[in-house]
C-alpha cells in the first residue's frame, strides 16, 4: 500500500472533480416523475453549447464512446455503403475495424502513427468520386494513442470544394470539452464523445451530436439497430424523458460537470488545456525526449504520447510508476507498446498536476535506466508557466 494520493495521469478515465463525484452520490429517483424533465432538459441545452451546435440534436446513451460510434454508424448508413476512413493510431484503427464488422465497404487511408487526418488525400478521393458513392467521411479529431489532433475544418473544406454530399463523422471522445470543437461551423453530422474524458465523469454515457441532415438520413437508413435507435431516443428526449432507464447519478454528475465548464467558460477551458499541454511539451523536450506527433501543429492539447529512449522499455517505466510511485501513465497502445508512454492532461487538470506528472515521469524513466536529467522537465515546464504561458507561445517547429 502506498500512502498519499494515487496519481491518475492517463487520458481517460480522467480525474473526477470532488464536486462532480459528490453530485453523483444521490438516492435513486423516479425517472418518470412529473418534474424529472426540469432536471434533464437543461442538460441537453448544456451539451449543445459544449458541441457548439444550435441546429443539431444531442443524445446520451448508456454506454461509452465506442457505443456512440456504433450508434452513429448504424443509424445513418446502409449495409455495404462505401465510406472513407483513415488510420493514424489505435482509436482510428478500431473505428475502421468496427465499420468493417458492421458491413461497410471501407476505403481506408493508412498514414504513419504521428500524422494527422490525411485531408489532402481525402480531397483527391472525394474529388474523383463523381457519383457520390462515398456515403460518409470519418475523422478521429484527437487520436489519443498518438497524441495527435487533426484539422476537422480542413476535411469539411475539401468536402465542400468538390460539393460532396457524404456525412461527416467525427470522433471527439478525447477532444470535446477540452479543445475547441465546432459542430455546426465544421458541418459535422455525427459527433461522438463519452463521459470519462473532457467531461470529467466516470465512463457510462456515450454522447452524440447529430445534425438535422443525419437525422433525416436516419429515417431511411437500413442498417439494423434497436437499443441505439435515434428516433426513439430523440422523440422521448424532447419531453425530458428516456426510452429506457437512464443512469440518473451520471446525469447529476453531468449537471455538475457542465456547471464547472460554464463557470470557467469554454474558451478558458481550452486555453487552460493549451497552456498545460505546452508546459508538458516543454518538459518532455527538456528531458531530451520526443513526442509521437510529427509536427507541432499536430500536438494534442489533451494527451502527449512520449517516446522513451531506445534502451528503455516503456512498459518498465509504467510498471515502476505504478508500483513504486503510485502513479498511472497511459501505456503505448498496439504498435507503440514498449516504445511510448502517455501523459493525459485533460479534464480536471492544473499546473501542480502537470509538474507532478513530469517529476514522476523523470523519476520512473531514470529508475528504468534512461539517462534523463532529473528535474529538467519540471524546470522547463515551471519556467513556461511562470513566463511563456502569458504570451501563449507554442514550441516552435524544429
Ligand atoms: C477513449 C477513446 C475512445 C473509446 O471510448 P470508450 O469510452 O472507451 O468506449 C474512442 N476514441 C477516442 C479518440 C478515445 O480517446
From TrEMBL:
The record's annotation in PROSITE patterns points to: AA_TRANSFER_CLASS_5
Q: Which Gene3D superfamilies match?
A: Aspartate Aminotransferase, domain 1, Type I PLP-dependent aspartate aminotransferase-like (Major domain)
- Annotated residues for binding of substrate: 342
Q: Which residues form the Aminotransferase class V domain?
A: 48-292
As stated in the Swiss-Prot or TrEMBL entry, residues carrying the post-translational modification N6-(pyridoxal phosphate)lysine are: 197
Q: Which SUPFAM superfamilies match?
A: PLP-dependent transferases (SSF53383)
- Homology family: Belongs to the class-V pyridoxal-phosphate-dependent aminotransferase family.
Molecular function GO terms recorded:
alanine-glyoxylate transaminase activity; L-serine-pyruvate transaminase activity
GO BP terms: namely:
glycine biosynthetic process, by transamination of glyoxylate
Keyword terms, alphabetized: Aminotransferase, Pyridoxal phosphate, Transferase
Co-factor requirement: pyridoxal 5'-phosphate
Native species: Sagittula stellata (strain ATCC 700073 / DSM 11524 / E-37)
Give the protein name, as stated in the record: Probable SgaA serine-glyoxylate aminotransferase (SGAT)
Q: Which Pfam families match?
A: Aminotran_5
Cited InterPro entries: Aminotrans_V_dom, Aminotrans_V_PyrdxlP_BS, PyrdxlP-dep_Trfase, PyrdxlP-dep_Trfase_major, PyrdxlP-dep_Trfase_small, SP_NH2Trfase/AEP_transaminase
